[in-house]
Amino acid sequence: MTTRALGSAEETELGRAERDIRARLGDRPFDFRSMAAISNIYRAATTVRNHMEQQVLAVHGLSWSAFTVMWVLWIWGEQETGRVAAETGTTKGTLTGVLKTLESRRLVLRSAHPDDGRRVLVRLSPRGQAVIEELFPRFNAEETFAASALTAAEADQLAHLLRLVSARVDSARGEAAPRGAQRDGPTLTARRSGRTFGSQRPPGRGTGRGS
Amino acid sequence: MTTRALGSAEETELGRAERDIRARLGDRPFDFRSMAAISNIYRAATTVRNHMEQQVLAVHGLSWSAFTVMWVLWIWGEQETGRVAAETGTTKGTLTGVLKTLESRRLVLRSAHPDDGRRVLVRLSPRGQAVIEELFPRFNAEETFAASALTAAEADQLAHLLRLVSARVDSARGEAAPRGAQRDGPTLTARRSGRTFGSQRPPGRGTGRGS
DNA sequence: TCCCGGTCGTTCGGCCGCGAACGGTATCCC
DNA sequence: GGGATACCGTTCGCGGCCGAACGACCGGGA
What is the pLDDT of residues A34-73, one digit of tens each? Predict the structure, then answer.
């Protein structure tokens, strides 16, 4: 309640849209509260991604995905492509394409795994290293800007609530139809979503003292 | 703080990832709080979208975007394509493609605007109407599930915080480089993002008693 | 040794997504 | 009225994105 931010018509505008929706659906027992919470996630995500691509990434012609891959390689160093895919939240097939793009621009390098012929290792090139080190401070500055309508406590709260949603949805992987069922299906390629704070940890890094 | 939900290792896992990031970047003055808040938005959005497409939309082979378009037409009725584009948060070019897909499946109908030869009107076909009415309750049920780790107050708070972020980023449209500058650039196609609660209102609907 | 199931990265087809460019249309202003 | 201007939806090129299919490769077992 502290930061209302911007003298915009935000609340009234949104109220109008919601009123239209209720006028159309109000006689049916839908969960408008969850609808607002969930739908706004996608809305904010698209807004932020477009902003970053236009304001920060455009100077190097990078997409959000390409940047994310470079970020992962920057933080955790050389990785197997499968791990990068999981960490960036895409499928292996998608990652192949992104890597092809990055490789064509000489930003990353692929190399064969020494012990396993199936695996492929990826790492930043010196050029890629320079690009991410130039880009990330600007990227982070825009993150600060995007969160600047929030108090510190609100930013923490936002991250926390989003993690709860992600964890909840992740917990339902591999199910079929009904909501009540317990999860059992193990067969599904590991999938993560988005940059940073994925739940995969890098290999050979601190074991984090178990549970 | 009330709902911790799932006996998962969520917090410790995320803590480990964040610790790795700080180990790599901690000596530099980055804004880790904003980083966590913003990056988790994208992560949650992807997770939710994939979940919806797999659990709800797959039975009709619809994408999130196609569903969103049908939703808009369902709630607000026949619309000009430009308005649908703004409401769904895509460009006009993208919408043309989505409409082509929907039209090929006989879910929407295009018609010429009576008074303006440039405009095109879109509406749900009877078949499309039936599909969205079957699909939306299931969709909303999954929204409820996705938000089920949150209390009612937390869900409201999440929506509120996300709206603040969206509004903040939207306010920066048309700028170039420096953060301090005031916005001036008017030339930019109206852009919204995501389903529901966009700030565009339908034409000819209640005027909402102005400001 | 030779299968054989499992795993890895790539390829493929289809769709979404963007900005830029294009043709058709309306509107403003003289 | 007639031309400049602005607007609308479509098209285009390129890249991201997914699931499925594929070929290469690993490991274990007889």
Answer: 999 999 999 999 999 999 999 999 999 999 999 999 999 9
Segment holding B120, helix H or strand E: strand B120-124
Topology annotation, domain A18-169: Arc Repressor Mutant, subunit A (1.10.10)
DSSP state of B58: G
Which residues are B108's β-sheet partners?
Answer: B124
CA of B71 to C1' of C17 (A): 19
Subunit contact B45:A47, Cβ cutoff 8 A: no
B197 pLDDT higher than 60:
no
Determine if strand C comes within 7 Å of the CB of A81: yes
Topology, domain B63-139:
Arc Repressor Mutant, subunit A (1.10.10)
Closest Cα to residue A83, out of A92, A74, A71? A92
| Per-domain boundaries in chain A | 18-169
Over residues B136-189, the pLDDT tens digits come to: 999 999 999 999 999 999 999 999 999 999 999 988 875 543 333 333 332 233
